Amino acid sequence: MSRHERRVRTLLRGRSDANIRFDKLRALLRHLGFEERVRGSHHLFDKEGIPEILNLQGRGGQAKPYQVKQVRQLILKYKLGADD
Q1: 31, 44, 55, 79: most buried, per Cβ within 10 A?
Q2: How many CB atoms lie within 10 A of CB 56?
Q3: Over 80: is that where the pLDDT of 83 sits?
């Protein structure tokens, strides 16, 4: 199992939303095919075929729990990471 698969599984479990590193979440989204744009402290992620745009901000090196939940919902809705 690759590190990206492990991160997806950890994220999908939803038990550690407050303990997800911001840089690891960004790397996972890029691995899933999202493009990243940075505007100040806002990291915007979009992907062709997905109308939603993710707007993430880190806090002390950690991802904000409600934003981790948004990423999880997007992964489940579009079945991302299933065939990686």
Answers
A1: 31
A2: 20
A3: no
